[in-house]
Structures are given as structure tokens and as C-alpha cells.
Amino acid sequence: MIAEAGHFALALALALSLALSTLPLLGAARGDAALMEAARPLSHGVLLTIAAAFGFLAWAYVVNDTTVMNVVQNSHSLKPLLYKITGVWGNHEGSMVLWVLILAICAASVAAFGGNLPSVFRARVLAVLGWVLVGFLAFILLTSNPFERVWPPPPDGQGLNPLLQDIALAIHPPLLYVGYVGTAITYAFAVAALIEGRVDSAWGRWVRPWAVASWAFLTLGIAIGSWWAYYELGWGGFWFWDPVENASLLPWLAGTALLHSAIVVEKREALKIWSVLLALLAFGLSLLGTFLVRSGVLNSVHAFANDPERGVFILGLLLAYVGGGFLLFALRAPAMAPTGLFAPVSREGALVLNNLLMCSLAVVVFLGTLWPMFADFLFGVSISVGPPFFNMASFPLVVPLFLAMAVGPLMPWKRAALWPAVQRLWAAAVLGLLGFLAALAIGGWNPLPLLGFAAAAYLIGAAITDIADRAGVGRTTLANAWNRARGLPRAAWGAAIAHAGVGVCLAGISGMGFATERIAALSPGQSVAIGAYEWRLEGVRDAAGPNWTSRRATLTVLHNGQPYAVMEPERRFFPIGRQTTTEASIRTNILRDLYAVMGEEEGGRAVIRVHYKPLAPLIWIGAIIMAAGGFLSLSDRRLRVAGGARRREAQAGVPA
Amino acid sequence: MSATSHATPRRPSGLRSRKRQRLAAVGLVLLGLGVAVGLFLSAIGDNLVFFRSPSDVLAEPPPPERSFRLGGLVEAGSVERGGAAIAGSRPEIRFRVTDGANTIPVVFTGVLPDLFREGQGVVTLGRLGPDGVFRASEVLARHDETYMPPEVADALRRAGHWHPAQGAPPPPAGWNTMNPRGGSGG
Fold this sequence. Notes:
The structure holds two protein chains of two kinds. Chain A is 64% helix and 12% strand. In chain A, helix 1 (2-30) packs antiparallel against helix 7, helix 8 packs across helix 11 and helix 19 packs antiparallel against helix 20 (617-634). Chain A is built from 22 helices and eleven strands. Chain B has helices at residues 18-47, 54-59, 150-158, 172-175; strands at 48-52, 68-74, 80-82, 92-98, 103-109, 121-128, 134-140. A five-stranded mixed beta barrel of chain B has the order 2-4-5-7-6. The radius of gyration of chain B is 26 Å and the shape is elongated. The relative contact order of chain B is 0.14. The chains are: A alpha+beta, B alpha+beta. Strand 1 of chain A pairs antiparallel with strand 1 of chain B, so a sheet runs across the interface.
């Protein structure tokens, strides 16, 4: 019964979404307030039905209902409860249900909290979200029904892929999906504005919170995915330029561009057409990511169970939504004359540069990711494009990006001069030089990471300069400046913190450039050393968990000959599914990671690989700081409430 | 500040027509695209990694400085874990990769991925040594044991082990029990 109820709830959600996608539009066209108002109860109804479907699916997992195909394929009665629940979205069908659930939550919150939106506009936004819901609900019901029955029921399920039985993987997809779905919301705002034929500064103000939220969640989702790859795959890397990673990076790049250009729309009524285009592109890239992951057209370590039929369906959705959006754009954009004119050297000019570089970066990543597919179609050759390509091609774009993102916030709107802004960065430049020299003294000559450290210190310095400058440090008393700093709009703090987060993250990435690793076959009592650290193998023993057994090595870490820590890397064997996973052991003190992996055993020796990774944790801490900056600026009341903003703006200057 | 005198103050944009600004915008977009495509073209040439099956490699050995991906099945019984004789030495693993028709010996130093198994599909990244031994720097792992890299399936098909006319490729677990040389896939 549970499965049928869930299936029915999904079908009901589709019916309600169909109504949501048409009635409010009709109402907006006719000026019928009752039809427009229908959007609100309808979007709440969609949320209720999808939440019910999700609940039924989760329940089937919790009670291990083996008459449901999806549960049989992805769960097992012996799995810990936490992973039974997270297993709901650890597979294709369930993750799609989570996707539409998050979309429905966002739509319902636009309905509930969009009180400051004009009712015609809100009705159109919700209708566009209704289209998106219709497409994805149809996709689930037609190609990926999570409630399919199996008869006769097998005695137990086949278990979840052990690599996915992990807490990071439990929270990674929901965060990422909130980010992806956020691009659907900005898409809906863009399409609604195109239908209306009007984009103004108010539009920029409405879109910005959603762009910022989507960006912050994407940042967190990507960071947690990368952290998972770091400790779970046991390779010691954090980013592999894998197609699936790139698929999440592309909407992030477009979203970063959008959240910056939306500021220009809001403050200067310029870049309007461009921002609408970016919103369409960001959603298109999110869908493309979904398509790449689900269809299996590209080879990836992350491959879901592949199914060409689903791929074709998603490609159809992609063409319909993005193609439709672009068609509307082509019809309406020429009529939306730009009203804001501006000089190239100004705050908005710097934001244009940001957009240009972000989009160029996105094009490079896009081409590199899809090239294997094109090469296969066009020339029939099987190739892959690896990290060296992405590093080489993105470097020339990243350097000016870092230089400019420090200068931009220091420039005033409308007209600025470059030199005074650059001049104020002297402290940041000195900090950058110090970062370079310090890294050189500690790590030795290694040009790229050294440049990275210089840029990281420079970015953090520039963020501090930005705040200090706004607070008037040097122009007034320190106490006065402190008060002014506290009174700065949260969006200004958020921007500075996010920019500093980029610097912190960059420091971590640069630290990886100085990482060293050793690999050795050790018998008990033997050791392997990196610098001042020495790992001594004490022994290997058997261990067991709820649904696995393992061989666990005990390593004593010696620092300058003194016992320092014990590390226990292991290889787990999952009898259900007959798989082995590597559990790396990591000892961190924020400034460096000690990382140990156990390989195979042979003749009483175990293969042990150890890494010394300076500053590695900063990669993820930096990403969290970036996201925190985003959330902080979300709490700025000017971003929530339309009124009451002008006065403070004039007082405190405007954040980037 | 004396610094302001260095800067050329911008004139208000009265003279700058909207048309010119729109033209500038289109120009900027084209510039961004051009730069991106230029970077792509300049970097892609040296960094393309081709996939080769053992038969491809024997027919047309790639130059030793060019890294490529070698894929096929790990030949049953070919895995030797050597190099562990000396205390603390680097563990060296030797195995052969086959597509049923030909095999290439591979040597790899490192920790093998969890799903590496004899008879299982494998993709390795590295360079071909002058002695005809492939020196792998990476052995690629997959999340999923039932996953067959498409290139490997293709290589097997080309070597005559399996033909699309026979339906879907057999699951990789099934390759375990197959004789890699005997053509039992027929």
C-alpha cells in the first residue's frame, strides 16, 4: 500500500503542477486576481503531495520493504538506520524525488514569503516553476518510478554501494540540489520578467537573495563532495576535474557571475539583459549537469546506473526549458532597452570584468568537459581530457580574476579612477609578498604554489582593506571606525568575508602543491618517514562493523622521534555486494593533514601510503567561509525587504 | 591626494550613445568567448589523452613521451605483487591487460583501487616504456562493481569477444570466469 500511496501522491503532484503551470499565467494575462491567487494554494499543494511521496519512499526504506524495486536495489536490512534514510537519495530515482521536493519547497516559499513581489509577477514566477515541476515529475513517473514493485519479493535487498555509506555523502546531494534548484528559481524570475517584458532594479533586488542562496548552497555542496573524495576515495586529492565535478562547477561559475551582475541591475539598472541571460544559462548548466550525471554519455568515476532513455528525456527537458527561455529572450530582449550607462572604470565596470572572466572560465570548463563527447561523435576517437588541460587553460583567467576581485570592491559606483583604488591595496600587496616569502622559506622554490600563496594573502588583505576602508580606519579614531564597521550593512561584510574565503581556500589549494607522499610495503616494526614525521606499523588486525569486516592497520606516528599519534587506516569488506573500500586515516591540526592509507597485504607485509599535506583543511574551511559570507549577506534586511533600504545605502556605501 | 592627478577622470557618458555601448557589450562577449576558445585550443593539443586497447598499442605503438590510457581486462592469473622483498621498499605490482586478442604487460607502483580484480575491466593511465612495458601512474577506480568502462566494452567488441548483435555486453562479474584468450564470449 505504501508504494501505491507514494505513486499516487506523485501523480497528484503532477496534476497540481499542471494547474500551477497554467492557471496563474491565464490569470496574469486576463488580470483575473482569483486565478493569479490560485498559485499560492496550488504550490502549497504540490509541496504537500511531493513531501508525502518522499515520506512514503523513506518509510519503505526504513521498514526495508523488499516488494519495492528501489529498496531492493539500494538497501539492506542490516544497513544502519541513518544510511537507510540517506539511501533514499543515494540512487537515481530517489534523488530525483528529493530534487523535486526541494524545488517544491522553494516554490512554496516564494508563494509564502514573496509578499513584496507584485502579485502579477509572483503568479508568473510560480507558473514557470510549475512548468519545471511538470517536466521533472513527468520524468520521474515515466522513466524513473521509485515505487515500482517487484514480485515475488526477494528475501532481502542488495545493499547500498559502500562508498556511499558515509555521512558526507548523506548531506552532499541535498546541499547540491538546493543549489541546483536555486538556479531554477532565478530562471523562473528571469522567464517571468521576459513574459512581462520588463526588467528593472526591483527585479535585481528580488533575484539577488535567490542567486546568493543558490550560490552559497552550491559552494557548500561542492566543498563537501570534494572533502568526501579526499578522505573516502583514498587518493589524497581533492579535485579531479572529473566530468561530474565539472558539472557542478559550471552552474557555480554562472551563479557567481549572476549574483555579481544582479548587484549592477539593482544599483545601476544596467546589465539587465545580460543578467537575464545568465539566469537562463545557470539553469541550463544545472540541467546539463543532471544530464551528464544520469545519462552516462561521459565517463566518470561517479557514474549512476546509466540509462540512455533517461538521458534523452533530460536532454529533451534541457532543450525545452533553455530553448524556450532563449526563444522568449530573443523575442523580448530587444524591447528592453538598457537604461543605465556607465564608464568602464567603476564598480560596475569591475563587476562586468568579473562576469567576463567567470563566463570565459565556464566556457573553458564546458569545452574541456564535453570535448570527449564531441570527439567521439565527430571523429570516432576515444579520448579523455585530464587535469593538466584544465589547470593550463584556467590559469590565465584565474590570475586576472584574483587581481580584479581585490580592486573592484574599493572602487566607487559610476565613475572611478583605477589608481586610488590600487593605491589603497598597498597593505594587501605587502601581505601578498610576505605570503610568497614565508612559503618560499618554509616550502622551497615551487613557482605555482608560491604564486598561489601570494594571491591568497593578497586577497585576504584586500578583504580586510575593504572593510577598514569603509569603516574609515585612518581617517577617524579607532573607536569611531570600530563603531562604523559594526554598522556596515551585512551585505558588505558578507562580500568581504566571501572574498576572504576565496583567499583561504586558495591557500589550502596552494598548500597541496607542497604535499608529499611515500608508499612502502611494511612488516610490523618497520616504518616510513616524511620530514620530521615517521609512521611505524605496529600490526594489522581484524575489525568488524554493523555490515562490514575490515583489516585495520595500527600506525604509530613519531614526530622527531617522539610518539605523537596513532593512526588506523583500514580496508573494509562489505559482504553484501562483495565490495572493498579504503578508509583513510587523517590526523589534522588545521595547518596540516597527516594522511595514511592501507593497501593490500602480501606475505605478512602491508602496503602503506602516507601523505603530508600542509594547509589542506583550509580548502574546505575557505569554502565554508565563502558560503558563510553568502548567508550573512542573505540576512541583510535590504535583501529581504524592499523598503527602508535607500537611507542606509546612502549612509554606508554600497557593497559588492 | 596627489594620486588623483594620475587618473584621467572619465567624462559623463553624454556623448557615448547607447548604440556604442551595446556594440561594446557585444564586443566584450565576443572577446570573452574568443579568449576562452583560444585558451581551450592552446591547452587541448598537448593534453588530450587517447584511449588505446592492447591491440591498438601493438599495431601502432605510441611514442614513449606521450601518455595515454590503456584499457581492457586484467588477465586472470597475471597479477604479481613484487618488490616487497626488501624492507620498506616501494611495492611494485605487475599485471597484464588483455582485450582477448593481445596483451600488454603493465607495471604500477602504488595502492590499487578497491575494485581492481583479475578478470575485471580496468583503465590505466601512463606511458609505454621502450621495453614494451606500460608504466602506469594511475589505475582508475570505479564506484560500481557492475560498471564496465564503455571503452573497455568497445575494445572487447573490436577484439571479437563480444558483438552488439549478441545483445548487451555480459556483466563484468561474468568476465571473471571467462578465459581471456579462449574467446568464450562468443
